[in-house]
Amino acid sequence: MKNVWTLARRELSGYFATPVAYVFLFFYLVFMGVMPFALGGFYEREQADLVPFFQFHPWLYLFLIPAVSMRLWAEERKSGTVELLMTLPVTLWQMVLGKFLAAWFFTGLALVLTFPMVITVNFLGKPDNGVILASYIGSFLLAGGYLAVGSLFSASTKNQVIAFVLTFVVGLLFVLAGHPFVLDWVTGTVPAAVTDAVRSFSFLTQMNTISGGVIDVRALTYFGSLIVACLIGSGIVLDMKKAA
Amino acid sequence: MIEIKHLTKDFGSLRAVDDVTFNVRRGEVLGFLGPNGAGKSTTMKMLTGFLAPTSGTASIAGHDIENDGMAAKKKLGYLPEGAPAYSDMTPAAFLEFIADIRGLTGDKKKARIAEVVRLVHLEAVLHQSIDTLSKGFKRRVGLAQAILHDPEVLVLDEPTDGLDPNQKHEVRALIRSMAPNKAIVLSTHILEEVEAVCTRAIIIARGKLLFDGTPQELLSRGPLDEVFRNITSTPSRAAVS
Lengths: 244, 241
Ligand SMILES: Nc1ncnc2c1ncn2[C@@H]1O[C@H](COP(=O)(O)OP(=O)(O)O)[C@@H](O)[C@H]1O
Ligand SMILES: [Mg+2]
Known about the structure:
Chain A has 244 residues and is mostly helical. Chain A is built from 13 helices and no strands.
């Protein structure tokens, strides 16, 4: 566990050693702040809640998460530090977990920095802060699940652009799987069980349940298993590369 | 301390390392010689556990690198080819990170970092980010990282590459001074380096081990570069001798 912490700290220090982290946080906050107003009808709804804000998270993450996750392993491969890392007395799982936790912490930090939104709605009216808290947790879980997917693709290639694109495409599929457009199309052509399966696989569906104010066991299981599966996958891919 | 048995590595149809066997005892400095592309780095990558061998085994201080990798890696210091290091870190932060991974703490950690910084002369650049350092300094950061925990086994892939003659001389002196308590393997394509630091020399070409003996034996065959050319250009004949 101590090694995981050491590795995570190193990874995180790498984020802040260059302007990358600050540029990321800047754009993140601008988008998070502007989108709900520009596209979500934040004012027009005349309701004091953050529903439009959280509805944008899955879409914003489509761009922001791959940008964070692409460098997790691809960068180490490109610079050759992966050879150093893998010959140090740390296990593959400590590396995978340490890097993932650093990235997750970083997106969590970005999320925390959006707290002025909470202050704003509390100033404008009387929102249900319990729902807001649940939505934040949901968004954080979503970020974790998506980062784990990104970790898998970053482990698979030394090219960061490829890692970004693959993560983006898979993320898009995960989001779209819960979109009414897709669900309408799927319904009727395939058994209802399949429709349900597709829907429950979607980031949107999982986010929506949580945005209702309840973090139910299913959502936790969903993101939890997604994270575990993708991290195990990352480890397997990295181990396979060793023999290549 | 180092045992390599029938190590072989294929990259697709290319056999980069072909049935290489050798041992290194404590107190020995083994010079691993060969032209570019001979398979030196690939052998080292397998010995240190970065690459899995196609066949054969390698062990460090009695621990098989594949089945007992953690124990083996604890006894090992490794300078990979090109001395990779996290370019956005300073040497100070980088060595701190390595020390944490190596389980050094408190005063011992501080003392050990100060010691290696002194040994490889990093004082002047300690707080400058690694990507701004010259090739020579980067190499020395890599060397510092490898010797930080005073390992029993040291594997150095071209440790003097990119250093100027004075720096080369210092690094060789450092290696010689560490030699009595360690088993050291260093790869090089500089022949004089073998004479200067090694107690034993191995020559490989096209993945095959062609010579294993003392630098004196090598020298007794005539001028070093001529002997080297002979051995590496006619593998079948030299292998028999
Ligand atoms: N990852 C790899 N994939 C394919 N071929 C490789 C790889 N690494 C090394 N090789 C090939 O293996 C041979 C030995 O390389 P290497 O061990 O780096 O030689 P040396 O260190 O002696 O210069 C070379 O022909 C090289 O091109
Ligand atoms: Mg080499």
